[in-house]
Amino acid sequence: MIEKNCYILGIESSCDDTAAAVINNGVILSNVVATQKIHEAYGGVVPELASRAHQQNIVPVVHQALQQANIDKKQLSAIAFTRGPGLMGSLLVGTSFSKSLAFGLDIPLLDVNHMQAHILAHFIKAEGQKAPNFPFLALTISGGHTQIVRVSSYFDLEVIGQTIDDAVGEAFDKSAKILGLPYPGGPLIDKYAQQGNPKKFIFPKPKVSPLDFSFSGLKTAVLYFIQKNVAENPNFIEENLADICASLQHTIVGYLMDKLKNAVKQTGITQVAIGGGVSANSGIRKALGEAEQKYGWRVHIPKFEFCTDNAAMIAMVGELKYKQKHFADNTVTANARMKL
Description:
Helix content is 42%, strand content 19%. It is α/β, with parallel strands linked by helices. The protein folds into two domains: 8-122 and 307-323, ATPase, nucleotide binding domain (Nucleotidyltransferase, domain 5), CATH 3.30.420.40; 130-301, ATPase, nucleotide binding domain (Nucleotidyltransferase, domain 5). The strands form two sheets. It has a five-stranded mixed beta sheet, with helices on both faces. A five-stranded mixed beta sheet has the order 8-7-6-9-10, with helices on both faces.
């Protein structure tokens, strides 16, 4: 059993959000996120600008997390940080800061896989959130990843399906860009989709192996579809935006669900959990709710604050690793392509 006054500081800096959180026995005491607005002007994350912003944000964000948790840094038991995967420059800021702070406080260092953290965010003790039982299937969907993972224990995770090219979050954002929507466009597609007809337009579902994904062809199909129709009617997007978004979201959600059904059939596991930024999408949440009723699945959907990149999930994995004494030494380095 972890000691009563054990406080783990989690630090997340894998992409464009600088985040820090404090956890105590599975309960999040603070969860601070500084979002970088600078990328909106460029229509996507600029790695060099992201790493510079992390350097500016990390000290005040950590200070705020400790303040909100009402503890002093000397009360910390360990520091957990995102080692990878992610943008190398961004990861280096979080890794260097965490190593320095742990060394200065003479406390253990805990390196965390970002994708494992999205999955284990379900074990945070939060109102309305019930942890899945092992084994379960995790669908991790974000701007950088799309995977189906068989989770047999906290530290026994096997990727059984994944994208062979682009991630689902990228497909949403790039399609939104084609439609002239600002970055990040995924949430805007979700917003407009709720006002449109999901069966107005037909988009192709890429054909790959039963548990794998592909999204590059879908993005190309959206591009050609828009170019063709705008050539015939310059106001096509404006007149059909809600229906385009609804149809695109319907296609993507249906594609994700097809793969998940295949995974359930293949493994016999009916406990299903989702994680990652795209798990905030209302379409996938609705589809999973319907599957729970129709197929008898037990579906686990994280609270919104634990869907997008956050440090609470890093702290959660850190606490689990702390219990097992899975410490990192001070020679640990960031790994942009870290595997699950």
